[in-house]
Design brief:
- A seven-stranded mixed sheet has the order 4-3-2-5-6-12-11, with helices on both faces.
- The chain has eight helices and twelve strands.
- A hairpin with an 8-residue loop joins β9 and β10.
- The radius of gyration is 19 Å and the shape is globular.
- It has 271 residues and is α/β, with parallel strands linked by helices.
- The chain binds S-adenosylmethionine (SAM).
- S-adenosylmethionine (SAM) binds at residues 22, 34, 59-61, 64-65, 80-82, 85, 105-107, 121-122, 124, 127.
Length: 271
């Protein structure tokens, strides 16, 4: 929880109940906050058209990218740590033959297939620390087809800068009964290397009640750093291209492929 949210709760003597953004009621909130956002879909569909074979959507969540990929006729494995998030996706595509939902950690997974395209949307690579990203890169390489493409997004420009300042603001989130006001709070930690984000429903900031504080912790990662990490892990220097967004955010898409020997370290690869 951020110090600012703690202070707000203290002033009304409210008791916090910290809830991960991607489990339980957090998933419904995420759906309301991000579900309608079409950013990245156009670019990921273009990548899909340029590649063959099944697609692996890592940290797929409620399927913001998976659903359009499946609807475009592609076979997709949607992998996520949270069964609650994947439940939204299963509801969106009930019993669909072209989607396979896998509850797993993107740092440690072992699947049967090799994929023509592996994607990580919504800047979710920032959920992983350096050790986690090393494990991710090794797993991606093991699951990528010989001519496969690995692509993920990260904030760039002014959007990246806004991720390195602590701040609080009130935002409006669509809900079943209209818009609802939430307090968004971001706290920078580890000398700017990490950020804690919280959301609290403003109407809940009342005297003495229990208040749900939705929370996530993310790394602050520059595209240049991620490009270097990819090269160090044996991938080609990525192509970096802007993602078209509607809310003025600056999002960059990093697209790469395996640059090393096709057989390098394949002993533990999928069958
Ligand atoms: C920002 S959401 C992205 C969801 C979706 N891809 C989108 O574009 O809206 C991040 C997702 O990453 C998942 N996640 C967090 N840590 C993970 C991990 N180590 N392995 C797999 N998924 C993870 C969360 O459960 C959540 O669904």
């Amino acid at each position: 929880m951020t110090a600012a949210v703690r202070a707000r709760l203290d002033t009304v003597r409210a008791v916090p109940r910290v809830q991960d953004l991607y489990t339980g009621v957090g998933t419904d909130f995420y759906e309301r906050l991000v579900g309608p956002d079409r950013a990245e879909i156009r670019e990921v569909l273009a990548l899909a058209r340029a590649t063959a074979g099944p697609i692996l959507d890592l940290a797929a969540g409620s399927g913001r990218l998976t659903v359009p990929l499946v609807r475009s006729g592609r076979q997709v494995t949607a992998l996520d740590l949270s069964d609650d998030m994947l439940a939204h996706l299963r509801r969106a595509l009930p019993g669909h033959a072209m989607v396979d939902c896998v509850v797993a950690d993107m740092r440690r997974f072992s699947l049967e297939h090799r994929y023509g395209l592996i994607v990580i949307g919504a800047t979710s690579i920032t959920l992983l620390d350096r050790a986690g990203r090393s494990l991710l890169y090794a797993n991606v390489r093991r699951h990528l087809a010989a001519d496969g493409v690995f692509a993920f997004t990260v904030a760039g420009g002014a959007s990246a800068e806004s991720l390195s300042e602590s701040r609080e603001l009130e935002i409006s989130v669509p809900g079943p009964d209209g818009e609802e006001a939430y307090l968004f709070s971001q706290q920078i930690e580890e000398d700017g290397a990490a950020r804690v984000v919280n959301w609290v429903r403003v109407a809940d900031l009342e005297d003495g009640g229990e208040v749900t504080v939705l929370a996530s912790r993310l790394r602050v990662l520059h595209p240049d750093l991620l490009s270097r990490e990819l090269v160090d892990a044996g991938f080609a220097a990525p192509a970096v291209s802007p993602v078209r967004t509607h809310r003025g955010e600056e999002i960059l898409l990093l697209t790469t492929s395996w640059a090393g020997s096709p057989d390098a370290g394949d002993d533990d690869g999928p069958e």
